[in-house]
3-dehydroquinate dehydratase (Nonomuraea muscovyensis), 150 residues
Amino acid sequence: MPTVLILNGPNLNLLGTRRPEVYGSTTLAEVEALCREEAERLGLEAVCRQSNHEGQLVDWIHEAGVEHKAGRCVGVVFNAGAYTHTSVALHDAIEGADVPVVEVHISNVHRREEFRHRSYLSPVARGIVVGFGVYGYVLAIHGLHQATRP
Ligand code: DQA
């Protein structure tokens, strides 16, 4: 079964308890279960990973690129958290790995502080889902599935 990589960056391991008024009360484990279920409905296997470390996220994007080239991975659903607004390394990783990436944000970053309005990932993303809570991950899986269907 082809895979879809569900990648979460820094602090997203705290989902459920961190600022629930902004990010909701669903935990990361619950989000990942939701992604696995939805992916399976579309004939995909969701591989779920989270790291607080930028280099680890870079390595996983590279791996996804290799898997994508081999026809085993349709792409990446990626919430890079705060690295979205700072990371040239993640921008370059996505560009270099040449793998379709859907950028996801649980909150509507454009209604928030100005430093969250800038994304280093958007220019190299296949698509973007912002502001629909954790349901954004489901929308991103569907978008990726449609966009990469043969
Ligand atoms: C976030 C938005 C980012 O600005 C923030 O740093 C996060 C979560 C979101 O999902 O809304 O950690 O990516």
